[in-house]
Amino acid sequence: MGQPTPAEPLARLTVVDELEAQLSAEILDGTLATGALLPPERELAERHDVNRTTLRQALGRLERSGLIETRQGSGSRVRALEEGAGADVLPLITAGRKGDWLTEIFEARASSGTLIAGRAAAKRRPEHVRELRAVVEQIRTAPSAAEAQKADAELHRVLARATGNRVFILLVNTMLRAYRPLHRRLRRTFADPRAIAAELEPLVEAVAHQHIAAAERHAIGYFVATEHDMMRALGEDR
Question: CB neighbours (10 Å) of residue 28?
């Protein structure tokens, strides 16, 4: 018998992590409305059964994310997302699995990924082609869905690097981070690594031959197909 596959380490959430998630969920679902003042620190700490040091750390994170603003003597007020929140709130949103947000995240994934594929086809260097083909082979021969999923993420990072634009690299990393809370639930999309590799190979070859329109076409096809599988997986988990 072969050795069992080692289990993935579980994420270790701190009390601050959990409190940040709870407060952000209340902001994002409107329980704490835009423009509303948060309750006083003492009341919030008692409500969530934490000490005020923990509360302040969580509030500090929310302020850095742009979800709240704090003024000395006035307390903390909920900000509109459009005013100051950045892409770093996306993992908080996906952790809450808010359907309307997920639809918009997938739309942004497809649009940005298609643009990146086209730019990669225009700008790629020979080493990028070698990397892309190697990653497709890693996906094809992956021993598990987890390994195929990991290699798929690397392929999108290579495409971003091939554009020569560092902002695209940051954008891809941000989108991948947004899916992190759903990572395990989305894994079933990669249950057939050979099928995933077969879908990605035409995209990689279009990039290799600098066929921009074909790269964009294959990219959008891949994103739409995997979005369908991922949304179905999330729906079945509810």
Answer: 19
